[in-house]
Amino acid sequence: MLLTTPRNYQSNDVQLMHENDARYLGYDMGCGKSLPVVAYIDQYRPKMSLILCPKPVVPVWPKEFKKHLGKDMEVLVVPLDRKPGKKTTMSGKQKLELMREKWKAADKAGWPIVFILNHESARMEPMASALTGVKKNWDLAVIDEIHKCKNPSGTSGRFIGKLGKKADKRVGLSGTPMPHSPLDIWAQFRFLDKKIFGWNFNKFKSEHTIMDPNGFWAHGKPVQILRYKNLENLNKKFYSIATRVTKDEVLDLPEATHLERFLDPDAATKKAYKEMHDNLVTEVKGEDCVAANAMVKVTRLQQITSGFVKTDAGVELALHELKKREIVNIMNDLDPKEPVCFFCRFHWDLRAVESAAEELDRPFYGLWSGRDDVDACWKPKPGGMLAAQVSSGSVGIDLTTSTYNVYVSQTWNMGEYDQSLSRSHRHGQERPVFYIHLLMRDSVDEKIRAALAKRAELIDTTLSQSEFNEMILDSYRKDS
For labeling, which of 34, 260, 295, 480 is most exposed (least CB within 10 Å)? Predict the structure, then answer.
């Protein structure tokens, strides 16, 4: 029996999931997009369900079932990540064996069974063939953070297209349905309901884009998008099966404030930055650092603002410790028991946070590829410092223990940035939240920050990630 009382929009989506074969829950982070799934399974008892999600979220889903249904729930929830009772991961073969074993147990008990698997494992053999080759269709297939499968020709995008054919009911969950551009929606709807936007991506693209004849060309055709069109029709089709819920509409959250701290570079850093900006090359400690094009140039400039340069040989050379020193200053200004999360783009920044924690004798936690000290919900010791790579710290974790979030370096992925903001400013947060942006004065940091600060305006005008990139790149292309 459901222990949590759903909000009206959640109850409505449970009913719509029952009445329709496809549903898209476009809930902002913290608006409770897992509850309708749990409630639907509890109420309508689909015999065999599959939930695909990012790897860090796999252990979160069993907790959601337990939270909403209690320890006596008559639903068998099977996470397919680690060996039962152990910390080692299972092979694909072991996962299939566990699925067969648990299926027999659920069938004997007469309970619904829910398998939970991460996106990457699902698309790899032998799991991919097993999941898309079931003799009897899945009663329910749910893809959490479905926008991560947005690439029509990518492995995940093609896999969920196949999976959609083998599921009687299909549900997509995402707080950022179109993180980069309106075209992101096509592969997601190929899984949900291929009739809405059709099977042909090129046709869909031609219906909603105007290509730039003066831009880049490939295979005799322009490939650079000038602008989008027919967006009203696209939105109408999207909302034919989607519910969009923003946290501003439904959550009584405390205030969130953005603060900026400007750092003045020393002479050596100014010189390196100017040379890279003007000439696409600078020399540090006798080593050349070169940018091959405008995109690489922006990355190189960001690296300089973070305190290092990367040589042609891939060696990272230190330039300054401005951001580390500011991290120390910030921590010294706060209550010694206050935990703080630091979002970083580069490993250099992650190491700067760790070095600052060592200097301050503060507990340090890391979250990046290969390290996870958060485990879905960060519960730090007093004064703990978490260094999180934005790509790793933007989904599937609860950072409400921290009300201070420092962006050591600026990401220009709007989807990741938006989701990272919601890690601490979400349901369960009771204190005001502060976002502190470390910006080197008169640099690319300021330009990216200014563009991200206008995000609401960008979304309202359906500005795509590629257009967002162009706003920044145009300032850094070498004059011809």
Answer: 480
> Who's near 387: CB < 8 A, 6+ residues apart?
342, 344, 349, 350, 353, 354, 364, 365, 366, 367, 368
The whole-chain average pLDDT of the chain stands at 87
Helix (H, G, I), strand (E, B) or coil at 466: helix
Q: Helices 465-473 & 414-421, crossing angle to 10 degrees? A: 100
Closest CA to 161 of 191, 125, 119, 130: 191
Peptide bond before residue 126 is cis, with ω within 30 degrees of 0: yes
Domains and CATH numbers, the chain: 8-250 (3.40.50.10810), 256-473 (3.40.50.300)
323/284 Cα distance (integer angstroms): 19
Are the beta carbons of 123 and 155 closer than 8 angstroms? yes
Q: Which of 305, 321, 311 is nearest to 270 (CA)?
A: 305
Specify the 3-state DSSP secondary structure of 98: helix
Rounded to two decimals, the pTM is 0.68
Among residues 165, 112, 123, which one has the least CA distance to residue 148? 123
The answer to whether 410 and 344 are in contact (CB under 8 A) is: no
Residues 6+ apart with CB under 8 A from 186: 150, 152, 197, 201, 204, 205
pLDDT digits (tens, 9 = 90+) for 50-67: 999 988 688 889 989 999
CB 173 within 8 A of CB 143: yes
Task: Give the three-state DSSP class for 350.
Answer: helix
pLDDT of residue 377: 86
Q: Which of 325, 324, 291 is CA-nearest to residue 309?
A: 291
Whole-number Å distance between alpha carbons of 24 and 170: 9
**CA pair distance 458, 274, nearest whole angstrom:** 30
